[in-house]
From TrEMBL:
Its cofactor is FAD. Transmembrane segments: none annotated. This is Prenylcys_lyase domain-containing protein. Residues 4-209 form the Prenylcysteine lyase domain. It comes from Schistocephalus solidus. Keywords: FAD, Flavoprotein, Glycoprotein, Oxidoreductase.
Length: 211
């Protein structure tokens, strides 16, 4: 395997019993291999995750003005397909109440209300600014991150042929083989476990066959 690191651009090489390819093969993947070894790159959707501390503007959502969300451990506001696609003023795909260790405590020592929004840059180019001004009375931006979240998911007419393979070649495992059918944090955990099980099964079999 030949590789570089973030801290050193010098090309290095090493031999490994197993290599787990954990990075999704999206449009930004800088991975090369002999032709036919890797599955084709997939176009991933760009998503913004924005963490905000503050008081939600009740009127924007039709909530009673005296409604308090402090007692709620979790609350999710998810626009319907019609509410998002037809109403171009809806900036987020999801808005959820969360607990953040990055937010400063309130004056009385309590934990402030924290919210995370997921949005698309083609609808909301500056989520840190626009979410605070559009949906909060007093919103303080904690952090906004943009990343390639998931590919364009659609039914697979022939999964046995179009689904990716976990074992690309002996010793080379692709953890995101299911990305064409489903993509989530939970699936990432399952994929990592699958990779570990493959290595465990093969190494155990090799040890049993050893003289």
């Amino acid at each position: 395997l030949e590789y570089t690191t973030d801290s050193d651009s010098k090309l290095k090489s090493a031999e490994f019993d197993y290599v787990v390819l954990a990075h999704p093969l999206n449009q930004n993947a800088s991975i090369s291999a002999p032709k036919g070894l890797l599955p084709p790159l997939l176009e991933y959707k760009t998503v913004d995750s924005t963490l905000i501390s503050g008081e939600l503007d009740h009127e924007k959502f039709g909530f009673p003005s005296d409604e308090s969300f402090d007692r709620l451990k979790g609350l999710s506001i998810l626009p319907t397909k019609r509410g998002y696609e037809d109403d171009r003023n809806t900036l987020f795909k999801a808005l959820m109440k969360v607990r953040s260790v990055a937010a400063k405590e309130t004056e009385d020592g309590g934990a402030p209300s924290c919210w995370v929004t997921y949005s698309l840059p083609e609808r909301c180019l500056y989520p840190g600014q626009d979410m605070c001004s559009s949906y909060f009375k007093k919103g303080v931006l904690i952090r906004s991150s943009r990343w390639l979240a998931y590919p364009d998911l659609s039914p697979l007419p022939n999964p046995s042929r179009t689904m990716g393979k976990f074992i690309l070649s002996p010793g080379l495992i692709y953890a995101n083989a299911l990305e064409r059918a489903a993509c989530s944090m939970e699936l990432a955990v399952i994929s990592a476990r699958n990779a570990a099980l493959i290595i465990h099964t093969e190494t155990t079999a090799n040890q049993e066959q050893a003289p």
